Amino acid sequence: MIRTRQRILIVPGEAGGLEDLEKVIEDNGLDIVRTGSGSEAMKRLAEEPFKLILIEDFLSGASGLELCRQIRQNDIYADIPVYVLTEDASKYSRREIARAGGDGAIIRPFDEIEVWSRFEARLKMGETERVLKGALQNINSLTTFGEELLFAFDPFSFDYLTSMDMVVKQIIRATSDAAGKAQKVILGVIDETQTWQWYEYESVFGKLSRTGLLLGADDVIGFMVEKGKRVIFLNEEDIDLPSVSPLVTVFKSHYIPVENIVAYLSEKLCIAALNYDQRVSETNALVLNSLVMQSLFLKSLADRIRETEDAFTYTVETLARSAEANDDDVGNHIIRVGHFSALLAEKIGLSVQFCKTIAIQAQVHDIGKVHLPRELLTKPGKLTDEEWELSRRHTLFGAKIMGHHPRLKMARNIALTHHERWDGTGYPRGLKGEEIPIEGRIVSLADHYDALRNARSYKRAYSHEEVCKILLEGDHRTKPSHLDPKLLKAFSELHQKFEKMYDDMSAEKR
To answer: Is the pTM for the entire model greater than 0.90?
Structure first.
C-alpha cells in the first residue's frame, strides 16, 4: 500500500524525555520510528524512506555527529534533514554540525511546540525542494524522451505500439528504488480493424514486460465521456467515489489493484499508470500528457508522410503507364523492370532505401516514348536511319519530362542513361563504365532481360535459358561488354529469381 503519512526517525540516547516532543509530532500527522542504536538506524534507513532524522547526542557506542557523518556518506540520504539533540549548547558549533552534514542542533531544555515549528518549516522547505527537483527531472526526462523519439523516427518503419513502449518506460518503476514511478501501466489502442487491443505492462527484473489483456473498452470510454477530460489523476481517497467506480471496477475485475492512478483517455487511446509510490498530482498528469502528445504527434506525422509517399508512388506509376499508351507492350514490363532492378540492387549490397526507390522510379525508364509516334513504336520491320535516330531521342525526352526535382533525380538518371553501355558504345552520350550512374547500369540489365523475354511486333519472345545465354555470352546484338560485369555476375547468381518473378508477374497480367 502507498504510505500517505510521513515518517520521522528518532535515534534516542541515554537522556530520554522525548515523549512530549513525539506527541507533538504525531499530533501533526507524522509517524515516529524509534531505534535503539546507530547501526539499527542505518538498517531502517535502508529499508524505508524518512522525512527527517533526530539523533540524541550520546548514543550507545557512538556520538550523534558520528552517526550524522555515516548517514551523509550515502547520497541516497542526502536530502533528509538531520538534527542533533544535545544538552550542551557549547559542545557543537554550527560549523561542526554542518561539517558532519547536520542541519542544526536542538538544545535541551526545549519547547516542543517551537521545535516542531522548526521541523515543520524544514519539512516544507524539503517538500518544495523535492517538487522543484522532480520538476527538473521531469523536464530533463521529457527532453531526453523527445530527442530519442526524434532521432529514432523513421516514418516508413514507425510503429505506434513501439512508441508507446517508450512512453511506458518513462513512467513505470524499473527498480524498487525508482521513486515517483508507477508500478503498472494498462494500455489500450485501436488497431487497423478499429478494434480495441489492450496490454498490461510491468517491470520484470528491470526489463519492460508487455502482455496482452482481455479488457473491454466500454466502461473506460464511458467514464471518459462522463468526466469530459482526457487526463485525470486520482489518489486513494478518490478511488471509492461513485463517479470513479466504473473505471476502477474495470481494472479490479481483472485482479488489477488500484491505489492511485494517472490516465490519458481518448476515443482511440487509453493509457493508465497505476500505483505510484506516492500521492499523484497534476504534475504527474502533465508529464503523462506530454509524453503521449509527443508520441501521437509522430504517429500523425508518420501517417501523413506515408500518405504523401503513397500518392507520390501512385503518380510515378501513372506517369510510367502513360509511356505504354503508344507501345505494343501488353505485359507488366515497366513493373517487372522495377522489381528486377531492386533485386539486382539488393544483391550488390545497396541500401534498403535505394532498393525501394529504384523499384518505383525504374518504371519511368521509357517515359520519353510518349513523344514518339505510335507507328514508330509498333513498326514490325526494321527502322530507317531517321526513325532509329528519333527513337534514340526518347532518353533525352524522358530526362526532360522528369525535370530536376531532387525526389526524381534517380528517375531522371534512369530515363537518360539506361541505354548507355559499359564499353561506351551506348547512347545518347556514349558514357563508359562508372561514368554511367549505378541506377542506369542496373536498369539497363533489367530492361534487357525483360525486353528479350517479351514478344514485340518486331521480334519473338525468348525463353529464360535463351536470355541468360544472350546476356552472359552475347549474340549478334547484345554483348557482355555492354553491361556492368559486377551486375552480370549478380544476375548469374540470382537468374532463377528473375525467371520466377517474370512468370509470376506475367501470369498476374493474364
So the answer is: no
